[in-house]
């Protein structure tokens, strides 16, 4: 399995990732990701993905707000406020892309959500509402930590294209030390919650949640690819 720098080797994040190995690989090294790495991803696929991702992020922000509500401490509440801000910044990057394609924020907002977008976002919110902070963080982790790993896999790809790659700024955002630190922090937080909130006893349920999130992430990439067929 691709080596991960996130979380402790005996922590909850490593255990969840290992238990979901097949789905995790299918997500982090999806053909969409390989197309970003070598620059061959059709623009139609990226556009479809990015517009839907902006709609995805609105609901993801709501899930972060739910995590703030469910936060186990004042420190965790502050952490969630910061995460919400990072999310809003990421949404601006999306709008910059959309502006290049002649799409305003209003145009993006008026786009119908794809079934894959609805499925993933509302499922995360449901896991969070039905469960506690650990259930919610496990549902969110493949998103935050996974994109960090996606960027690392792209960086190590033998056919990685840098010169003239149309997706270079997307790759750069997730390869940045700032984002890599965020991904590391999310894995460490999961490890800590695993200890404080009974991760061992709840492992089967948490592993099912983690694997389902990885599957929904892969389906999200596929939704982008399908637009270019
Ligand atoms: C489908 C999909 N999955 C993951 C991300 C990555 N992501 C979502 S929120 C966020 C900020 C930190 O939590 C990051 C990096 C995405 N954009 N779209």
From TrEMBL:
Annotated pathway: Cofactor biosynthesis; thiamine diphosphate biosynthesis
GO biological process, one term: thiamine biosynthetic process
Protein name, per record: Aminopyrimidine aminohydrolase
CDD domains reported in the protein's UniProt record: TenA_C_ScTHI20-like
CC annotations in GO: cytosol
Family: Belongs to the TenA family.
Reaction it catalyzes: 4-amino-5-aminomethyl-2-methylpyrimidine + H2O = 4-amino-5-hydroxymethyl-2-methylpyrimidine + NH4(+); thiamine + H2O = 5-(2-hydroxyethyl)-4-methylthiazole + 4-amino-5-hydroxymethyl-2-methylpyrimidine + H(+)
EC number: 3.5.99.2
Molecular function via GO: thiaminase activity
UniProt cross-references to Pfam families, sorted A to Z: TENA_THI-4
Family annotation (PANTHER family): BIFUNCTIONAL TH2 PROTEIN, SI:CH1073-67J19.1-RELATED
Chain ranges of the Thiaminase-2/PQQC domain: 19-226
Keywords: Hydrolase, Thiamine biosynthesis
Top EC group: hydrolase
Keyword Cell division: no
SUPFAM superfamilies with a match to the protein in the record: Heme oxygenase-like
Signal among keywords: no
Annotated function: Catalyzes an amino-pyrimidine hydrolysis reaction at the C5' of the pyrimidine moiety of thiamine compounds, a reaction that is part of a thiamine salvage pathway.
InterPro entries hit by this protein: Haem_Oase-like_multi-hlx, Thiaminase-2/PQQC, Thiaminase_II, Thiamine_Salvage_TenA
């Amino acid at each position: 399995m691709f080596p991960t720098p996130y979380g402790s080797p005996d922590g909850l994040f490593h255990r969840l990732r290992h238990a979901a190995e097949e789905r995790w690989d299918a997500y982090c090294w999806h053909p969409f990701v390989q197309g970003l790495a070598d620059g061959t991803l059709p623009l139609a696929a990226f556009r479809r993905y990015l517009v839907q991702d902006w709609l995805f992020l609105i609901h993801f922000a709501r899930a972060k707000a739910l995590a703030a509500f469910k936060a186990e401490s004042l420190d965790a509440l502050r952490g969630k406020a910061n995460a919400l801000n990072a999310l809003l910044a990421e949404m601006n990057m999306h709008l910059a892309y959309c502006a290049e394609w002649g799409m305003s924020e209003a145009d993006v907002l008026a786009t119908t959500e794809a079934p894959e977008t609805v499925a993933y976002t509302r499922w995360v919110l449901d896991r969070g509402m039905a469960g506690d902070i650990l259930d919610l963080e496990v549902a969110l982790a493949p998103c935050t930590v996974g994109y960090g790993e996606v960027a690392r896999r792209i960086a190590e790809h033998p056919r990685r294209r840098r010169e003239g790659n149309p997706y270079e700024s997307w790759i750069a955002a997730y390869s940045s030390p700032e984002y890599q630190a965020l991904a590391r922090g999310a894995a460490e937080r999961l490890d800590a919650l695993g200890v404080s909130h009974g991760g061992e006893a709840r492992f089967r349920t948490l592993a099912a949640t983690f694997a389902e999130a990885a599957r929904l992430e892969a389906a999200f990439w596929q939704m982008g690819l399908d637009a270019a067929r």
